[in-house]
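Appendix B. One record, verbatim.
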Amino acid sequence: MKFSGGLKYCVIVTITFLSVVSFAPVSRADIHVFAHAPNRWLRDVTLQGLMEGGIMANLARPASGINFGDFLADHANQAQLNQVSLTLSRALDDAVQKYQIGFVIQGLYGSDARYYHLLGVSDHMTSDRYQLIPAQAHLDVHLPWVTPHGVDLNLGILQAPMGVEVLDPSARPFYTLAYTSQYSVPFEHLGAMAHWHVTSDLDIHFGIDTGNQSTWGRNASNTSMAGYLGFTLAGLAHGKMTINGLSRLGPEDSVNALGIRADSAQRYWNDLSVRYDVNDRLSLTGELNFLHDVGLRAEAYSFVSFLSYKISPNLSLNYRGEIYRDNGGAFVVSFLNNRAYMNAFLNNYAPAETAPPTTYGALTLGLTYRPPVLKNLRVFALRPEIRFDRSLNGTSPFNAGRNAGMFTFGGDAMIGF
């Protein structure tokens, strides 16, 4: 049997992962790298690994080969290695109210990395589909200040905290992402975030950074800073409901595109999500988002609903429905080569498929099957899904501009220790 490209890497890395987890002396737990070290701090350092690959088929076979509006499964009818990640970390212990120091260092290789670079850090490393990024590299500090539960600080390369769906595939229900998760929330930052634990049920979040996927100097889209303010309220409805609200303010557009005006043209990001666990089997999540960009004179607003129902201990049914309005046609874009997304931040050459102002509707159904194999695996899951996207206002953004709707099906598989 012959393999090429991402499939060859999938096979090699799968064998490597299985070898590691088969001989690791753990049972459904992180690997403690320094388990026998005399220092307690070192004994708490852990290593995790994860690999994910998938495919989304499109029977319309778009001429561009691209599933429009889909970043992580953008190549129609092509299997790809989305990510292989290794994470070395020492977590802060929320139960211990004293000074603590921890860290997270995560490297990620795969096709997903194309969309999560920081300008000037890793975006020029290669033009191949499979790329390498420092997905996280931050110092974590707990300070027992102000209130009994204290303050946590994260400083360095941070994954953006806004939104329901995240880069880690094991922490989200689907292979593909909602429009909101791709176009209306940031991805990656260089900066600092603080989480003030006001009470056991209320956290206040605030932070400052160099911009979404931006850094400094010639590698910055502009010279201004941006930042967050928000909250998490848990323990509502007898412990069944959690509300997350986060707003972000700061210029994000390129000086190359807007000139000096880019340093003051604000982008306003706002995201509110509510999760309600009906019972041990059924959970519901709703997400509202509003994005306004002064420099682009554009805005987008959306609502996403999620439902997850546990059919059995090893099988869950997932639903996602979304209405997304791109008021000026400025946000929903599919990029046609492996560096185009990051090039667009600096207004450099970035071939892309675009669409006129469109109201998008998207419905996704899927299963998460976690077969009970290899007890020492942290995660092993198969996630088939079907998805239907449609323009609700008569435009034809899909399949290289031919159709008002797009039907895709496929899914992913992941394995991790």
